[in-house]
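note to self — DONT lose this again. spent like an hour looking for the file last time. sequence + predicted structure for the chain T wanted, 748 res
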Amino acid sequence: MILATDLDGTFLAGDAAARHRLYRLVDQHPGIRLIFITGRGLEAVMPLLSDPALPRPDYVVCDVGATVVDGHTLQPLQPLQSLIDAHWPGEQVVAAAMRPFTALQRQDVPQERRCSYFCDPATLAPLRVQIQAAAQALGCDVLYSADRYLDILPPDTDKGRTLAALARLLDLPRERILVAGDTLNDLSMYTAGFRGVCVGDSEPALTSATAALGNTYHAQAPGCGGILEAIEHFGLLPADDAWLKPPATTRAEGADLVMLYHRMPFDEVMENGVLVQRPPRSPNGIIPSLLSFFQGGQTGSWVAWGIDDPKRGPFQTHMAVDAEHYPTLTAARVPLTRQEVDIFYKRFSKEAFWPMLHVFWERARFREDDWQVFLKVNRRFAEATAAEAAHGATVWIHDYNLWMVPATLRELRPDLKIAFFHHTYFPSADVFNVVPWRREIIGSLLSCDYIGFHIPRQVENFVDVVRGAMPAERLAWESCAPRFLTYGCAVGLDTMTTRIRVGDREVALGAHPVGTDLRRIHDVLARPGVRNDIFKLRREIGARKLVLSVERLDYTKGTLAKLEAFERLLEQHPDRQGNVTLLMVCVPAAREMTVYRTLQNQIEQAVGRINGRFSRLDWTPVRFFAQALPFEEVVAHYAAAQVMWITPLRDGLNLVAKEFVATHGIEGTSGVLVLSEFAGAAAELKGAVLTNPHDPADLTAGLLQALSMPDEEAGGRMRQLFGTVEYHDVDRWGREFLEAVKATGNPA
């Protein structure tokens, strides 16, 4: 069958259960084609195409029949569109002809090949003959509907005639076409001879005008419910069609909290041909915090990928995480081949989305084949989650690798409460919109009940992108102060949106900077081996000041600019030569990520140049380590350093800055934090010396300020910083996020 349906009041109306049932039927049934046929302009339809809850139409007829496009490519459907265009004199010509009728009010909505006006019946009555004559002089038709809307259209153009022409062009069987509408604007579809349904709550004028039409059914239920009635009434699908059956009800048992993260809370290694678990080597403090929510008997699942390799034996879909500490938590492993992981994560995520998110859009490489793998992997995550979650459970999804999970998950399990936390930076619309699939991504995220970011700036950037993609209403907002900087840094902001409405869906938003794990750092500092390492480092540095830089090898980190700034410091302030050492720990990327090889060569050349220019027998200005250090050694370096120099060109947050502060706060020492004002943490860490990494002079000046800072000032700044880091630790971050999710009320 072919469903040709009006939108407002029809396909977008009806109770939630009827909408979900019809959308599922149309979206999944292999024998149904869908045509949107609406008075809206194409621009006003495009936001609906981004909504994952709505099935994608095969064709779209807009502007009351004047615009016809392919629903997937949005390209004009030829030669039908050209035939309509040939008889349209042009918007400016028509508007000029209507200008003498000052009682007409032009609609300020997107429209093409038509001019639309507001006009009530009393005003129109004395002008109707003159307006008709003016339109006919241009070879145009006049359509008046709903006692309000006046449209000037190309000749012989309305919904019914355009649909009939489309059916002829595509050779669609007329007896299999069902038209659906609710206003007099839709009358031409019924009089064109198609089977039709006037959904419940239709305009009385439409009901009256179609009363004598034998091929028109008047439904009781409004919107989608009425369309479902008509499908049954006309027998357009067999009564035993499997797709007509409602989806199976969700089971009551299952996980109350489902965590979707990019990796398991343990490392998987093969030992003697057996897959075993080992404690994670990464010092990621988020994982222990997330695990803590599964203490106390709450049933839970942790969904992440597992390598599906025949050499490892049969794939295990479920594993216990820690039977002693988390007896009710299960690891649900999503089977991915190594090739899928390489494409989905190591290549596509890092070569397409990562540079765009960090405002390096010119580096982004978008490949349609990779996007299809990304979609497939995200759907597998969604299906695994749907199978794990109890009815009404909370699902917490982490980061951009899983952007498309909410869309599929909402379709599969509308009962769930879906929350998403974006760990990376989120850019403004002028950057994000370079993504070819931006509308699909935003549509998926808007399937969530709650979306969290690190800082208010990233929340507002998201709202900026949404407003550029679809009509959005800002329902609630709050002041950013005193929690965050307002005008004091590049990522500061004064107010933040906390709730938006898009269509009939409300989404709550919030800023939640991830905290650090103080217990872990405290325990590390208490170890005798670490105390000995700190002593050795301090003795080795001696009277010199140690400037520390710890970061991954990435073009977003500003490593080259930092080295050049240090070189300028030694040039411009010779007294600093021999008195300061820059120790750089630059963790290399995985070998598969070849995009970083050139950068590593450039960094190593800069280090060699600086050391070649300024080294002495007893002093090397830059000590460079291109390797990952154990967390214990990193903490020892934090404690030994007088200055922490963190200068990313763009960063979602930067936990290294907080770890440095936590270390000196616990130690009671007064290290100085020099932090890029383009790092998310800059909006939160009041007391840091902020620097602009895009300004070479300011980079050097910020470091000089830190090296010259009196002890009293350094101590005061560190106490202020530690107060923030100690209070807003990783545990509080997790608790406040889930509390905000719970406050959103019932699931969508």
